[in-house]
Amino acid sequence: MKAGPTFPLVIKQDGVSARIRKVIKTKNGVDYVSYVVDYVRLGKRRLEWRADLEEAKEAAREACRKIADGEHMALELGNGDRMIYLRACEALAPLSVALDTASREYAEVLRILDGKASPVEAARFYAKTHNVKLPQVDATQAIDEMLAQAKADGKSKPRLHQLRTYLERFKSNFHGDVTAITSAVIQGFLTAMNASERAKKNCRDVLRAFLKWCAVRGYLARNAPNDLLEHLPAYRNKRIGRIEIFTPEQMTRLLEKAEESLLPYLVIGAFAGLRGEEIKRLDWSEIDLADGFIEVAADKAKTDTRRLAPIQDNLKAWLQPRAKKEGPVCSFKNVVNQLMRLAAEANVEWKKNALRHSFISYRVAECADVPRVADESGNSPAVIRTHYLQRVKPKQALAWFGIVPPTNA
Questions:
Q1: Model-level pTM?
Q2: In what side-by-side order are the strands of the sheet with 44-50?
């Protein structure tokens, strides 16, 4: 004997399903059998009753067909809504995107933009800032090109050294096209560096400059530098140890013991705040005693930015009898050896960068204007406060800038 169907009976048609349930009701001692077609349309549950199982099956198949074909929407939409629906389907037809998918994504786009731009404006901006096709350029080739251009552009020796140091190291660790550089690649490279946090920050900045250069050359999408570095740790340029400066008494002893040829280097560092490398590249023709300024040319400055350092009265007194029309201010190839020898003779412990640190600390105490001193010394106020400034009293600043040559000099 053939067994009957198992209920609920699932009917599938065109990827849509409906269920048929068997219902038995008893009336006056007689059982009446009926079948309920159960399906969902437009988010609502629908029930259709049939007395015959075959009729119920046909009703279920018909409901599935209508749901699959979208005819139920045409049946329930008014004329205006029906036209909107048909136009939407027509617009999406070439893209093979379902209407409900397009609606969800459009709503998400509006949420992300938050009224700041229209979806079309955002799409146009994205298309403009993203290269559709990027050339396959080996990272080694790109790095060599950037270093060659930096040299041709006349970048300072410290900047070229910094670029070469970090980019050559990256080149030896990464092999592949520029487009294959990912955030994970950069993060892994920085993490593996056996270096201080400050060095990692400098390396991160160099890599950003390299990625920007690649974007300008069309090797990367325009927004690639920000995208690749956005979520990487922002290493801090924190200082290790305390900021050390010379006292007026220590500086006086150093100047008393200094050789004549070394004096310009010492007084320019102590009373104008130029960096040691900037003094070594300085020419006497760039010192204007009449107008009272030292010109630090862009190609000689660490920051590649031209600036004018004011000449204090005591600095003028030191430089005037030694000034020349032209020629290098510092004639030593290895000035560090001279400084260490001088410190030993003067019985003063030499402190790295203390000439510049001292100028900045005493100058801030004198004028109480950090942004002004930052501009004079070629740094940002934030860097000045973090790495160069030791707070001293105005009385000490008066003594520092009161250091003048002996009257019998």
A1: 0.52
A2: 9-13, 16-27, 30-41, 44-50
